[in-house]
Design goal:
Layout (H helix, E strand, L loop, with lengths): L2 E6 L5 E5 L16 E4 L10 H14 L14
Antiparallel strand pairs: 1-2, 1-3
């Protein structure tokens, strides 16, 4: 079931709904079915520098360096 962003044209409320193909979306505030589907923001790729750094530190503790560049490998 996809998650969609909507804006109600009757009360101007913005919200998101989990919608099945067989259901009609209605506004949770006023109950109106006069909705506009909005463009949703894309989900983040979850590759922030902090996440990558923690994963590399964990790999270094476990001794996995085969996919690292020589400059990224710890000095011994």
């Amino acid at each position: 079931m996809p998650l969609y962003d909507y804006r109600c044209t009757a009360c101007n409320a913005a919200f998101e709904l989990l919608v099945r193909a067989s259901t009609v979306a209605v506004c949770p505030q006023c109950g109106s079915a006069q909705l506009e589907r909005q463009v949703s923001l894309p989900a983040p790729q979850m590759q922030s520098p902090g996440i990558i750094a923690r994963a590399r530190q964990q790999a270094a503790r476990e001794g996995h360096f085969s996919h690292y560049a020589p400059s990224e490998r710890p000095r011994r």
